């Protein structure tokens, strides 16, 4: 067989390339491309980048706390300074009522505050996503009952419910995480249910059901992947609220007294009379840390929400 003059000779570059990659390799390639595209769009949000940098700094401080300050900073009986010393070269943030280094306490407290905020937010979003997805999929009497329960949680003050749970249960970090997680899920549940209803109204869901797809197949293969971007954005937004809630409960004396957290430091400062005596160095550092971390998570959450849903029109 000869090649016509118009077609020209066949060259290696002219032969179409057939991909020999398997389905898993193709899926990994698509995920890498999606992650790269997400990062390019996220970097366009200056506020989100600033928030991410702040969170990376706080995470580094929390992870390296055992090496930089050590667990001995919590020791009351072997405090290195005098009670309520003002900031100096030896103690940049002063000392507390027991003579402990406040800079070390703030650094060590970041571990507890960030851990409680992350775990409480994950628990809250997990409960909300489960309830919202099942309510949007099954509908009927189940959706009616579960959404009326959700409405009841929505109208009840979250802080009051958390205080009630923290008062009844033992005072520990697990109690704080549980109290925050089981009282902040209703907003996520309603958002996820609305997204689930929108996804299940699409034609490919009807085709999946017509081809014999069961409830688990439809929810895990079709609904959940479309709901996950919303869940991710909601998680970043709830973490800041969870950190503030942990600080509030600790400030009210409902936290674990054996651990150091930012809210616990504010509670200690109140009991020591730092407000009336004007010992600002006891109040400002943990308060600023709480505010900065909450703001950083909020900025990241808004940026993620804008990337995943550009129609929101979040400013950059």
Structure overview:
This protein has 316 residues and is mostly helical. Helices cover 69% and strands 0% of the residues. The chain has helices spanning 23-43, 46-63, 65-68, 102-138, 140-155, 158-168, 173-181, 186-200, 203-210, 215-251, 262-271, 274-277, 280-308. Helix 2 crosses helix 13 and helix 4 packs parallel to helix 7. The longest helix is centred in the middle third of the chain and has 37 residues, at 102-138.
Shape: elongated
| Backbone structural class | mainly alpha
Largest sheet report: none
Cα radius of gyration in angstroms: 26 Å
Distance between the termini: 61 Å
Q: How helical, in percent, are the residues?
A: 55-70%
Structure summary, number of beta strands = 0
Spell out the key features of this protein.
316 residues, mainly alpha, 13 helices, 69% helix
Briefly characterize the structure.
Helix content is 69%, strand content 0%. The protein is built from 13 helices and no strands.
Give me the secondary-structure topology.
Blueprint lengths: L22 H21 L2 H18 L1 H4 L33 H37 L1 H16 L2 H11 L4 H9 L4 H15 L2 H8 L4 H37 L10 H10 L2 H4 L2 H29 L8
Helix pairs in contact: 2-4, 2-13, 4-5, 4-7, 4-8, 4-10, 4-13, 5-8, 6-7, 7-10, 8-10, 10-11, 10-13, 11-13
């Amino acid at each position: 067989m000869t090649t016509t003059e118009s077609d020209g000779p066949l060259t290696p570059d002219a032969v179409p390339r057939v991909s020999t990659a398997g389905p898993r390799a193709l899926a990994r390639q698509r995920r890498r491309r999606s992650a790269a595209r997400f990062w390019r769009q996220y970097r366009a949000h200056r506020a989100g980048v600033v928030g991410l940098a702040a969170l990376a700094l706080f995470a580094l401080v929390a992870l390296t706390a055992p090496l930089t300050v050590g667990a001995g900073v919590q020791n009351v009986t072997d405090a290195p300074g005098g009670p309520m010393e003002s900031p100096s070269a030896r103690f940049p943030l002063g000392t507390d009522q027991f003579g402990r280094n406040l800079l070390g306490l703030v650094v060590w407290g970041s571990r507890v505050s960030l851990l409680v905020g992350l775990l409480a937010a994950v628990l809250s979003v997990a409960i909300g996503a489960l309830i919202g997805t099942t309510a949007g999929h099954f509908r009927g009497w189940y959706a009616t009952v579960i959404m009326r329960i959700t409405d009841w949680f929505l109208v009840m003050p979250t802080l009051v419910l958390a205080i009630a749970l923290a008062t009844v249960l033992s005072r520990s970090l697990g109690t704080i995480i549980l109290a925050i997680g089981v009282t902040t899920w209703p907003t996520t549940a309603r958002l996820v249910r609305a997204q689930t209803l929108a996804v299940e109204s699409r034609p490919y869901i009807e085709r999946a059901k017509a081809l014999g797809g069961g409830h688990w197949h439809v929810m895990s293969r079709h609904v959940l992947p479309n709901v996950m971007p919303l869940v991710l954005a909601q998680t970043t937004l709830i973490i800041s609220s969870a950190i503030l809630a942990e600080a509030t409960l600790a400030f009210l004396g409902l936290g674990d007294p054996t651990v150091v957290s930012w809210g616990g430091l504010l509670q200690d400062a109140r009991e020591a009379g730092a407000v009336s005596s004007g010992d600002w160095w006891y109040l400002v550092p943990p308060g600023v840390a709480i505010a900065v971390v909450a703001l950083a998570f909020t900025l990241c959450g808004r940026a993620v929400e804008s990337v995943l849903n550009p129609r929101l029109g979040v400013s950059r």
